[in-house]
């Protein structure tokens, strides 16, 4: 299964990162990194009305290489003017991401940034803080309960917000054990890549109203926006539709209006 492959490749990649900067050094650097604005990712998603997280990704196992019609600088300017947070893939082998992209975005944006990666060891959390991320992703499917608990704690100690990703009932139940403030449903099945917004609708009742509830993946058209509005979703995480658009700003603004209508 693709998730296992990605995690295996991640384990092979980590020593490369650690050879550049050791874990003890990265930890020290993280502890010395000033928090830009505590809880900013959470606060930007929590505010009334629809919030949108705009993603930057150059490729994915399901979509292959994505050819963007605008360059990264233009994209950041468009996102700055229209979305509430930015998600940046930093996974190298399957999503062609890099921590350098996140640093570039940090230099040009005041928006909260989510480090989108497959987080499996403490080093990545320290690194996230050092490169300027405000939040990290925890994927329930690749972590056991103890890891979920410990990584969540570590992130919060570093004053990073956490988006906890789920895909089915059992994962939501496991995720709720750590009582996260932000919980997402990935509409993409990572076993066969099928996408259905039904996952968000079905899982909505299992997530208490006081949590920030995020619909992730597969949001590409007006119908999707209306459907998710009726499900009662606080935020959208959108990659492909923005990556393929010449004008993601106009798209984000249109969908926010539609959500309110
Ligand atoms: O491009 P889409 O279908 O709009 O999806 C964005 C985002 O949800 C997706 O990239 C994603 C969701 N969870 C992930 C975990 C790892 C990597 C990527 C993802």
TrEMBL record:
It is an enzyme of class 4 (lyase). Keywords: Amino-acid biosynthesis, Aromatic amino acid biosynthesis, Decarboxylase, Lyase, Tryptophan biosynthesis. It comes from the Bacteria. It holds the Pfam family IGPS. It catalyses: 1-(2-carboxyphenylamino)-1-deoxy-D-ribulose 5-phosphate + H(+) = (1S,2R)-1-C-(indol-3-yl)glycerol 3-phosphate + CO2 + H2O. Its EC number is 4.1.1.48. Residues 3-251 form the Indole-3-glycerol phosphate synthase domain. Pathway: Amino-acid biosynthesis; L-tryptophan biosynthesis; L-tryptophan from chorismate: step 4/5. Gene3D superfamilies: Aldolase class I. GO terms for biological process: L-tryptophan biosynthetic process. The keyword Nucleotide-binding does not apply. InterPro entries: Aldolase_TIM (IPR013785), Indole-3-glycerol_P_synth (IPR045186), Indole-3-glycerol_P_synth_dom (IPR013798), Indole-3-GlycerolPSynthase_CS (IPR001468), RibuloseP-bd_barrel (IPR011060). One of its GO terms (molecular function) is phosphoribosylanthranilate isomerase activity. Belongs to the TrpC family. HAMAP family: IGPS_B. PANTHER family: INDOLE-3-GLYCEROL-PHOSPHATE SYNTHASE, TRYPTOPHAN BIOSYNTHESIS PROTEIN. This is Indole-3-glycerol phosphate synthase.
